[in-house]
Amino acid sequence: MKRPLVLLSILALTTALAAQVDRVLRFDTAANVQGNLRNGPINYTGKDGNPIKASVNNVNITAPSAVLTAPAGSTLAGAEGKRTAVFSGGGGDVNVVRGRLTARGGQLAYSEATGQGVLTSGPSAVFVPETKDDGDPVNIKATQMSLDVDTNMSTSTGSVELVSGSQTGRGDKLIFDEDKSVGVLTGNPSLTRAASAKQKELIITGTEARVVSKNKLLYVKGKVKLVQGTSTTTGDAVYYDDKNNVAYVVGNAVSSDSKTGTKVTALKNGYLEQRTDLGRVRALSKPFNIPTDRFLLTGEKSSQ
User: Fold this and answer.
1) pLDDT value of position 49
2) Residue 30 confidence (pLDDT)
């Protein structure tokens, strides 16, 4: 009767070890190596002006130099899975590539124990869509950018800016899911849709903003405000379809125009539909359910 439990325990241990192995950093042998090869630290520098190369899981790193360190009292070989490395270079010479994401900065600190690589000194990243029909590239800037090698996600903090086509998002923190092209902005987030020949600039604010860059969809919740020209619309949440130039505002939705003095209030159990290209707002009596599942990160469960 205990055999299945033993097998499950072995399977769990094997899985944990496999995850740990995937975090181990490996350096290209074409580099200058100095230091204590047994206990570390080891200093890696490029040969003939070329950068050093390293990889971990599906992440490739290039930089002018790096220092690999083992925990005190451990050898470098025996400490695999617990070592740390700091990649550095002038300006933005540290480059990190994972699939369609390319990030760069002045320094990258990586921990095998956590699987986290923290990029600092002016970090930025570009996420390229799989096809031309999948929208515009996503450009991210922040004070600090952390990449998780266990998942295809990055977390950016400090004066975050996300730009994709005519959309610009700002906030204190951004989690970006490369598998689903979903970004979650928090910390006083704002989303701006630049003005065009068809419509005036649109600014949306709330307590949390989610973006699906592939489909140019926005979902903002928490004391939502939409400002476009002289029109201001408020509510509990908004779903904005950029391709179709329409916003759906739900929960105590009210829209007013300071120029014309007009005011539109959502009907009971209804919502406001705002056409951002036509400058028109109307109240509809039927309910509108925002497709929140489209904005979930990988592994995240719906709160509804």
Assistant:
1) 83
2) 85
Distance CA 300, CA 78 (A): 36
The whole-angstrom distance between residue 222's C-alpha and the CA centroid of its chain comes to 20
Q: DSSP string covering 103-128, please?
A: EEESEEEEETTTTEEEEESS-EEEE-
Are 63 and 93 in contact, with CB atoms under 8 Å apart? Answer: yes
Distance CA 75, CA 17 (A): 19
Burial-class residue 215 by CB neighbours within 10 Å (0-12, 13-18, 19+).
Answer: middle
Query: Tens of pLDDT along 155-198?
Result: 999 999 999 999 999 999 999 999 999 999 999 999 999 999 88
> Residues 249, 235: contact at Cβ < 8 Å?
yes
Give the residue ranges of DSSP H helices in the chain: 3-21
Write out pLDDT tens, residues 123-141: 999 999 888 777 899 999 9
Q: Which two tokens stand for residue 217?
A: 């969809």
Instruction: Provide CB contacts within 8 A for 296, sequence distance 6+.
Output: 180, 182, 302
* CA angle, 122 then 170 then 247, to 5°: 150
Angle at 191 between CA 289 and CA 173, to 5 degrees: 100
Of the chain, the percentage scoring pLDDT greater than 90 comes to 83
- Which of 160, 152, 145 is closest to 130 using CA atoms? 152
Confidence class for position 20, pLDDT limits 50, 70, 90: very low
Instruction: Indicate the residue type of 103.
Output: A
